[in-house]
C-alpha cells in the first residue's frame, strides 16, 4: 500500500535553485538559514536519483537519514527512582 521511502539531507549553495529538487522526490523541509533540504525519495530508486542530484551544480553534499533505522520501541527495564527523591 505505502511505498518504502528513504530520507536525504541535501546541503545546497543556492536556495532558489534548491526548489527544483521537487521533481526528484518530495521535499519535506527547506532551511534558508542553514542551506539544506530534507527530502524523501522512493527507496527502490534512491541510488539512481541521488546520482542525478549529485551532478547538480548547486548541491554541495548529500547525507542519508538514518531515522527509519533508529529503535523507537522503548521498554522500562530500569526501576523507578522517584520514590527515593521524595520529601
UniProtKB/TrEMBL annotation:
<keyword id="KW-0963">Cytoplasm</keyword>
<protein>
    <submittedName>
        <fullName>DUF2129 domain-containing protein</fullName>
    </submittedName>
</protein>
<dbReference type="Pfam" id="PF09902">
    <property type="entry name" value="DUF2129"/>
</dbReference>
<dbReference type="InterPro" id="IPR016979">
    <property type="entry name" value="DUF2129"/>
</dbReference>
